[in-house]
Amino acid sequence: MRSSDYTPLYRTTVGFDRLFDMLEKSVRSDWPPYNIEKIGENDYRITMAIAGFALDEVELMQNGPELSVIGQRKPDQENREVLHRGLATGNFKQVFKLADHVKVKAANLENGLLSVDLI
Fold first, then answer.
1. Which of 17, 40, 76, 96 could make a disulfide contact with 67, Cβ separation 3.0–4.6 Å?
2. Residue 62: CATH number of its domain
């Protein structure tokens, strides 16, 4: 009988297998939509679609194992009559649970996409 040792496969994911579970169990909301990607052996990226938000309207806070992404729009200074509202305009707060050793490396807002790199 032949047996296989899968231990080497699990060694590279210590802590990160829990990261995926925690991220999936984070506060679920359909807005804003987001993706979670593995971009390297120990590198991850959360990408959120937050079209219409300016950089100064978005705040990231890491408090222990929680990463909060908060978007608060400034009041619209233009006096416009909206005939059809198809674009989301509300504020949001999305909280992600991270593994204890995961930290925010960088964040970038470009073309309506907020990318948060984690290490």
1. 96
2. 2.60.40.790
In a domain, 10, yes or no: no
Please state the separation of Cα 60 from the chain's center in Å.
10
Q: In the prediction, which pLDDT does 23 show? A: 58
Virtual torsion, Cα 110, 116, 73, 90, nearest 10 deg: 110
Name the maximum alpha-carbon separation found in the chain: 77
**Which residues constitute the domain of residue 72?**
30-76+85-118
- Residue 1 belongs to some domain of the structure: no
Per-residue pLDDT band at 14 (split at 50, 70, 90): very low
CA angle (36, 66, 60) in 5-degree steps = 75
The model's pLDDT over 54-75, given as tens digits with 9 standing for 90+, comes to 999 999 999 999 999 999 998 8
pTM confidence score? 0.72
Whether residue 14 lies inside any domain: the answer is: no
Question: What are φ and ψ of residue 83, in 5° steps?
Answer: -85, -30
